[in-house]
Write a structure and sequence with these properties.
Strand content: under 5%
Shape: globular
Radius of gyration: 14 Å
Number of strands: 0
Number of domains: 1
Amino acid sequence: MTKTLEIPYVNLDEEELKLALAIRLLEEGKISLGKAAEIGGLSERSFAELLLKKGISPIGFEDIDLEKESQHA
C-alpha cells in the first residue's frame, strides 16, 4: 500500500526526506529496522551503516527471528 504525503517545501531532496522519516519512525519504535531500510531505499546493512554514521546504534532495532536464532544456538 502506498500513501502520498504533501508537505511544505523544505530544503531536502526526496531521498533525504525518506531517510529522515525512516530514522524517526524507527527511533519511535513504530517500524522495524527492515521496514526503515525499505522506506529509506537502502539494504538493511547500508541503513545500519548510515545509522552508525549518525551516531545511532542499529543494534537495538535489529529484527530478531527467535526461531532461527534457537536453531543456531
